């Protein structure tokens, strides 16, 4: 029996690459689409090293409808799509909003149009807890009101969700979707063959931690220690990327089993919050490496604290996290060390 084929846009990216591995291990046949604007081709070698075989990859831009259409026609029998492809740096989105709207919103619209043409009706969409803005109550559930976004990046995720809702409400598309609202993905595959690979200066905490520990960066700056949190630093819900990848596999299974009516939303996190300082100490405890860090001023646009209620994902997707914060930090450090060896 042929394996069910899943198109993975942005499949060479951080979360995409881990999801490709988990799809194969769950018995699916992923096909990667990536333009490598925010990833490196060596990721494909890492995926192949883990799986013992390569995964098909088409080097195209998801805003190119003709190229996207040709992938569906070449591959045939695609039964679902996981859409990761997007820019994700909050600061850059403030400076270059049109770049973000064109890429993040435009690529979703183009993809949906091609999916309709090709009669592919299952979509898992990569969304974000950023849609909750600064929540009034914690933890946030899927019923927590979506608020005005803090950045153009956040607004693109909000707009993309609205597009999917409108499409579902139209009643004539046939496309069903699951939007997974990620909290803070961290860590790397236990093989240390794939992990977070930021181009340039990292915009996420953990690569900055590992690069500082490795001596690539001189010092880590923690932005603010005067928030209303246990130690004054921001609170986030840090979820291991492999756990997050597995959530996509369960979402695909749910769709292919016909359990999705029109559109569903799920929080994907651990269900608990940790401060930035707790994350730093977890890294130090897990690796034995002391970090050079300082406290700086608050950073504009940062949400003081947010973490997930994951009851819905647990009950309906069967999702649960298996990794501790220390384990995630150790895997991130192992990945950083493997990068150093490759140089």
Automatic annotation (TrEMBL):
Q: What pathway is it annotated to?
A: Carbohydrate metabolism; galactose metabolism
Q: Which cofactor does it need?
A: NAD(+)
Which Enzyme Commission numbers does its entry carry? 5.1.3.2
Broad EC category: isomerase
- Domain named NAD(P)-binding is located at 7-330
Q: Which CDD domains match?
A: UDP_G4E_1_SDR_e (cd05247)
Enumerate the catalysed reactions: UDP-alpha-D-glucose = UDP-alpha-D-galactose
Coiled-coil regions, chain positions: none
Q: Report the InterPro entries cross-referenced here.
A: NAD(P)-bd_dom, NAD(P)-bd_dom_sf, UDP_G4E
What domain of life does the UniProt record list for this protein's source?
Answer: Bacteria
**UniProt keyword list:** Carbohydrate metabolism, Isomerase, NAD
Q: Which family does it belong to?
A: Belongs to the NAD(P)-dependent epimerase/dehydratase family.
Q: How does it assemble?
A: Homodimer.
In Swiss-Prot or TrEMBL terms, this protein is called UDP-glucose 4-epimerase
Gene responsible for this protein: galE
């Amino acid at each position: 029996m042929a394996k069910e084929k899943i198109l993975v846009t942005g499949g060479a990216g951080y979360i995409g690459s881990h999801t490709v591995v988990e799809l194969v291990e769950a018995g699916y046949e992923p096909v990667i689409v990536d333009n490598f604007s925010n990833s490196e081709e060596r990721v494909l070698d890492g995926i192949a090293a883990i799986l013992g075989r390569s995964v098909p990859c088409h080097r195209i831009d998801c805003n190119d409808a003709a190229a996207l259409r040709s992938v569906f026609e070449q591959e045939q029998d695609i039964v679902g799509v996981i859409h990761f492809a997007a820019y994700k740096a909050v600061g850059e989105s403030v400076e270059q909003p049109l770049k973000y709207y064109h890429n993040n919103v435009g690529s979703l619209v183009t993809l949906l149009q091609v999916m309709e043409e090709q009669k592919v009706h299952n979509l898992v969409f990569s969304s974000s807890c950023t849609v909750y803005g600064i929540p009034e109550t914690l933890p946030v559930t899927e019923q927590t009101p979506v608020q005005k976004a803090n950045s153009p990046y956040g607004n693109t995720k909000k707009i993309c969700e609205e597009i999917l809702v409108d499409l579902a409400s139209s009643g004539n598309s046939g496309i069903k979707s699951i939007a997974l609202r990620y909290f803070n993905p961290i860590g790397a595959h236990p093989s240390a063959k794939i992990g977070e690979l930021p181009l340039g200066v990292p915009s996420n905490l953990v690569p900055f931690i590992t690069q500082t520990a490795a001596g690539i960066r001189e010092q880590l700056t923690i932005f603010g220690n005067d928030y209303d949190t246990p130690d004054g630093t921001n609170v986030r819900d840090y979820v291991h990327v492999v756990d997050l990848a597995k959530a996509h596999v369960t979402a695909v299974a749910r769709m292919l089993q016909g359990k999705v009516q029109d559109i569903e939303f799920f929080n994907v996190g651990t269900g608990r919050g940790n401060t930035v300082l707790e994350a730093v100490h977890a890294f130090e405890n897990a690796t034995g490496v002391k970090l050079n860090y300082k406290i700086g001023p608050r950073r504009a646009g940062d949400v003081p604290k947010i973490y997930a209620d994951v009851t819905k994902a647990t009950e309906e997707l069967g999702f649960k996290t298996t990794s501790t914060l220390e384990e995630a930090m150790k895997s991130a450090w192992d990945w950083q060390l493997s990068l150093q060896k490759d140089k």
